Amino acid sequence: MRGADAHAEGADPEVLAAVDTLAGRWGGRAAEAERERRLPDATVAELLDAGLLQLAAPPGFGGAGHSWPTLVEAARHAARACPSTGWVIGVVGGHAALAGRLPRTAAETVFAAGARQVFATASAAADGRLTRVPGGFEVAGRWRFCSAADHADWFLLNGRGDDPADRVLVPLAAGQVRVEDGWDVSGMAGTGSRDITVDGVFVPEALTGSLPRCFAGRRPSGTGPSTSPYYLDEVPFPAYVNSCVIGPVLGCAEGAFAACLDRFARGGGGSRPLEQPLVRDGLTESAAELACARHLYEAVCARLHAAGTARRALSPEDAAAIGRDRAYLARLCVRSVHRLVQLAGTAAHFAGDPLARHWRDLQMMAAHRDLDWARNAAAYAAAAFAADGAGGPGAGTGPAPDGTRNAGDRVPSAPDGAGPSAAGGRGQAT
């Protein structure tokens, strides 16, 4: 059985080695990050210097151009030490790929200073609005859950334009927004996922993009079939950006398990908890749940990486299975760590305890819209059981043997408010 030290296929081992080298520093600053409700400046500088926020940035704009598994695996490794740092690598780092999918003029503008930047997103509009005016849009109001807002160079806002069925992606420079100090939360405090306010900024049409078009599959203009290992600028994007959360979630749970083992190995007061049958049984069941979560994680990574390298759209069945697996992965991680906290007892609830911090952070991560079980279960059931012609579920869908799309191979579109995900009645960082 592949263990916690195994890497998802397609992940760059050199990147993961760099993360592991720095992870001890991030773990040492985790309490500071939680207390200050943002990542320390030193941590962000290390992320940028090591290229860890540029992993998904397109090579055409100076990015490293890594595959998707490298991004989520780097986030997973970091989250074992500091869940907030892992979140910023995986989720905020993934936004660099989204910036590269903007229309050419807009992408050239946001990458004018190179790829060594922080791209925050603002998807959950509290009262934010985009109003079409001659030549572009006026942006005004407040957006929520902007992870790494204090360190952002650019904010990628999305909201409804004139057509209620469409959404518009608008980049704003950091100087065009006001970061609000309202991120007072019980978990994931270190992500600094603050609200932002925009006071009537005009954005030219050329610097905006239709979110569905930014998310759709595409082929770079003037090129034939691509042989580049970087595929995040070509494939339909929703399943990739909405699954960036699985690396931080799994890494956070693995970090909690390691912290619990360390606590029990140290003992205290002459006790030997590892000799107690209740403790041994609980640890074993939690370990089994994490092993199952890893299998689901590897399945999601394998599906997305295979589709990416082949430059093909996911079938509706594959897209639904990915949503199901990432939601159930989160369930398993929460169950596993909840049991560990129960085993550790009252001592595990002190604010500075690493197990307590991982538990708080994991609960906040699991509240993310993209991990909502009911939403993903409904999508999976619809894809798995809906009759599709005489052949039953799935008939006539999926890629043909030669890699082309059949008439029934429906390209998944960006769900309403997805990627960056919008708040759907539940708070989350983006």
From TrEMBL:
Mark out the compositionally biased spans (Low complexity). Answer: 412-421
Which keywords has UniProt assigned to this entry? Oxidoreductase
- Acyl-CoA dehydrogenase C-terminal domain spans which residues? 247-372
Biological source species: Streptomyces desertarenae
Keyword NAD part of the UniProt annotation: no
Question: Per the record's keyword annotation, is Membrane included, yes or no?
Answer: no
- Record-linked Pfam families: Acyl-CoA_dh_2, Acyl-CoA_dh_N
As for family, the record states: Belongs to the HpaH/HsaA monooxygenase family.
Which residue ranges are recorded for the region named Disordered? 389-430
Domain (Acyl-CoA dehydrogenase/oxidase N-terminal) spans 29-93
Question: InterPro entries recorded for this chain?
Answer: Acyl-CoA_dehydrogenase, Acyl-CoA_DH_C, Acyl-CoA_Oxase/DH_mid-dom_sf, AcylCo_DH-like_C, AcylCoA_DH/ox_N, AcylCoA_DH/ox_N_sf, AcylCoA_DH/oxidase_NM_dom_sf
> What name has this protein been given in UniProt?
Acyl-CoA dehydrogenase family protein
